[in-house]
Amino acid sequence: MKLEFDTKLVHGDLSFDEATGAISYPIYQSATFKHRGFKQSTGFDYSREDNPTRQKLENTIAVLEGAEAGFAFSTGMAAVANVLQLFSTGDHLIISNDLYGGSYRLFEELLHKQYRLEFTYVDTRSLEGIEAAIKENTKGIFIETPTNPMMRVSDIRKIAEISKSRGLLLIVDNTFLTPYFQKPLELGADIVLHSGTKFLGGHNDTLAGFVAVRAGEQLSERMKLIQKTVGGVLSPFDSWLLLRGIKTLGIRMERQQENAFKIAAWLKANNKIAEVYYPGLASHEGHGICKSQASGFGSMISFSVKDAEIIPQILEGVKVISFAESLGGVESLITYPLVQTHAAIPKAILDELGVNERLLRLSVGIEDVKDLIEDLDKAIGK
Ligand SMILES: *Cc1c(COP(=O)(O)O)cnc(C)c1O
Q: What is 246-312 written as a DSSP string?
């Protein structure tokens, strides 16, 4: 049955608990499952391999991303690490140079130093830059769009064309827009991943990660093997929390975006603010591409102040907005990327990107926007 996206958010694959008819999918808090008889498994043997609650969630993610299969992990980083297990020593990957700090740390500190995978960081807004970085041993391209924290936008369709023509795997970290606004697999990507901790969970209460893969080349079989072998799976209870969070993704994304538009415009008009990075602004350099490949711009705003001296006063002055890491939840958060989310990336790289001591990142929640603006106004000062 063909369903609209908001219906898919609430019902996933339309499956329900046949045993009880429960409207809220049950939490199957069981590590193992009894066999009905010799060679008579229920289809569930051990929860690292498959658990009914997690499976319901994984099917839901697959439906939302238009994927062949979905996989749920204990964190977003576990999702990234599991996807990278598709590659081998000596393989080379091209990576967006503006990227979540934890992903950078995984690539450099573990996968490069210990396992000799090679990574080249390029500005993936430039297709020529990507082409130029392709080497004989290049096997994949890994992008975020919009990027964390500079909100740079890369053209997924065009990068997918390059990737396909060279036989590479295109992986998109879709954490910032979620499938509600952007569906990378439909645009030609091979693999989508998420920190489910952020918008999909949506309540700043649970860590989770997702991978969704297109059909073909045994991608889903290989991911399943990696997932059950490595074992970083999402627990039944956290799977239930994610199912619950996803039901309201649409209304949250709409409200958060509506608030973000107002705050971005307000920041832009503030004389203490130097630069506002929000792809929803017509003046943002990636606005056109974002509009062509996504149905919305999300609710992440980065901005730089003119004078770094007011940073502590802003971070300590906000009362409704919390000075905290993370993003995507109903509660608005403000982050100082230089010392929080992006501390793992060398200063020289950050400087070049514009991640400096004047940059703040705002995750806009669902509060009344009047209170959020008043909060920022008081903290930024006159
Ligand atoms: C937070 C984040 C991650 C890592 O996810 P965790 O759930 O914190 O492990 C990866 N990518 C992006 C874009 C993120 O914002």
A: HHTHHHHHHHHHHHHHHHHHHHHT-TTEEEEE-TTSTTSTTHHHHHHH-S---SEEEEEES-GGGHH
